[in-house]
Specification:
Number of helices of chain A: 7
Number of strands of chain A: 10
Strand content of chain A: 25-35%
Oligomer: homodimer
Distance between the termini of chain A: 25 Å
Helix content of chain A: 25-40%
Largest interface: A-B, 24 and 24 residues
CATH topology of the largest domain in chain A: Alpha/beta knot
Structural class of chain A: alpha/beta
Chain lengths: 231, 231
């Protein structure tokens, strides 16, 4: 199945954008009468039929739609961008494939990267949503300072950090069916001040096992633990 | 800590190879008297002191060593190489970081890639082992036909496949402290013949959840499930 993404469909837009039109008509060689499936990224799939296979503005008529309710838990990952942008891009791709609700980027004291290309990250998220045939597009938030990130609300709030005083694996602390927020720090780790600020704001320190993981690996493993607790 | 890899150390080789010598002396600017830690990839770390900081043949003397026993479970992943070689490379990096014992590559009926650069994959595995500070280097095996892969022995053997007759999540079937072998198929999935052959050889079909995952994501999620069952 080829899933198309069209956020405006629920507002009555019944043609693909230029890029998706080109893909449907030139790459997939679709023509009038062919069936397509569209996701609005807000939980609904639309089953439609192409009416005009224009490579710049491919029109369709909707025949049926189906709503997919959200899962009974949600994951919000806040992560420090890695020095190497590729690594954060794959983290986004993998977490969207596995299913995530919200990704925020945070600026920490030891962060090596001070900027992030949100447009590019959003494109990767859309592509992963389509590829893994999902109905919900996760919210992607621009870079914010750590002190703002720790103000975000959730049922369970975790901060990834391994030291001798912290033997708690995320698996042991997370409860099923909650709204989770998890913070994963930069290559240089969180500063003591950041750890204290997080704990003051109700975050629990968690470990992800004995191995020393890269930032992006930790961000993926943490979400995977939360999925498994709920599966 | 900078961990060096030296497989021959237990046979009495007490100098770094050209690449590692250059890294120690030119990049890390180490000199005689500096402490280094070396892994032989077979469970032992050697704590040593540099005796001659030669950028081509850096010598050292061992002062102490420490053996890390293997975990009480083992994971052998057999996976079809992806069309895009990058994707299999990151799978190797991530699985080594998280801890894996053996990776085999298998040729399936619908495989799009018929070859794999094992030297490059081994370099990635060594780099990930060093980066995540481990003592064991996983065994990496060259591409073999599917019919040979299904002959490999293990306590629990799984094949990743989602269809309506297969509601079993790996999480529900895997028991702790076992020797696992898990097969993950190519983009075009296993053929019916391959699935039958696997089942005849004692493999259980497993799912990894509702989302449709890419080959390399499935290979990583499967190993992560097995780690969590044992953590």
């Amino acid at each position: 199945m080829n899933l198309f993404y069209l956020p405006g469909i629920d507002e009555g837009i019944h043609h693909l954008d230029v890029e998706e039109s080109r893909h449907a008509v030139k790459v997939l060689r679709m023509s009038a009468g062919d069936q397509i499936t569209l996701a609005d990224g807000k939980g609904t799939w639309y089953f439609a039929r192409i009416t005009n296979a224009d490579a710049k503005k491919c029109t369709f008529e909707v025949q049926k739609k189906k709503y997919f309710p959200k899962k009974d838990y949600s994951i919000h990952l806040a992560i420090a961008p890695t020095k190497n942008a590729d690594r954060i891009e794959w983290l986004v791709e993998k977490n969207v494939e596995m299913g995530i609700d919200e990704i925020s980027f945070m600026q920490c004291q030891t962060s090596e990267r001070k900027n992030i290309n949100i447009d590019r990250i959003e494109k990767i998220a859309i592509s992963a949503m389509k590829q893994s045939e999902q109905a919900w597009l996760p919210m992607i938030n621009a870079l914010k300072p750590f002190r703002e990130i720790v103000q975000i609300q959730a049922d369970q709030k975790f901060i990834g950090h391994v030291d001798v005083t912290n033997p708690h694996h995320l698996k042991a602390l997370a409860q099923p069916k909650k709204k989770y927020l998890i913070l994963i720090g930069p290559e240089g780790d969180f500063s003591n001040g950041e750890l204290e600020l997080a704990q003051k704001n109700g975050f629990e320190k968690i470990s992800l096992g004995a191995n020393r993981l890269r930032t992006e690996t930790a961000g993926m493993v943490a979400c995977q633990v939360l999925h498994l607790i709920n599966s």
